[in-house]
Amino acid sequence: MTSTYDDIEEGDLPEHRRSPPPVDFSKVDPSKPEDLLKMSKKGRTLMVFATVSGNPSEKETEEITGLWQGSLFNANYDVQRFVVGSNRVIFMLRDGSLAWEVKDFLVAQQRCADVTVEGQVFPGSMAKKDKAKETQQNEVNIKKKGRKTDGKTEVVNGNHASNLKQEL
C-alpha cells in the first residue's frame, strides 16, 4: 500500500511533509547565531508573539496591532495577525527567516511591551521605558521613606529590617 503523499509533487505537499531547505554553512557567520536560525527557518511558517503595553482592551489591541500589520504589509512583509488576548497577538509569517526583521520593527513600536520569537523574549521600547520609570520611582520611594541600604540590609529610621539578600 502506498502513502497518500507519494504521488504529490514536493511543492504541493503540506509544509510538515516537505523536506527542509538546504542550509549552506559556509555562508553562516559563527559569531551570529541568529543568521543560522534565519537560514533554517527560510520558507517555513513561523509565529511571532507580541504584547501590547499598558492595560488595553481587546478592541484597543486590535486597533494598535492592525496599524502594525498595515505598516508591515506596506513594507512587503506577508503577515497574518491573530489577537489571542486583551493585550496579546500572534503574527504568522509564511517565511520564518523574516521573523527577526519583523521583531526589530515591533520592538521599536511605542506600545510594544515585548516580542517573542522562537521562545526568546525581546523587550519592546515601552518595556525599557517602564523599567526605567519603575527604577526611578523605587528610588524616589526609598528617599521619601528615609531608607538607607548597605547592599545586604535595609535601614529604616535607624532600625534594621530583614535581609534583602540571603547568603546561601
From TrEMBL:
What are the start and end residues of every segment in region (Disordered)? 1-34, 128-168
Gene3D superfamilies from the UniProt entry: 3.30.70.260
Mind listing the UniProt keywords for this protein, alphabetically?
A: Chaperone, Endoplasmic reticulum, Signal, Wnt signaling pathway
Which BP terms in the Gene Ontology apply to this protein?
Answer: protein folding; Wnt signaling pathway
Bias (Acidic residues) occurs at: 1-12
Question: Would you name any one GO CC term?
Answer: endoplasmic reticulum
Where composition is biased (Polar residues), the residues are 159-168
Recorded hits in InterPro entries, A to Z, give:
MESD
Coiled-coil portions: none
Task: Kindly indicate whether the keyword tRNA processing belongs to this entry.
Answer: no
Where does it live in the cell? Endoplasmic reticulum
Which family is annotated?
Belongs to the MESD family.
Task: Write the protein's name.
Answer: LRP chaperone MESD
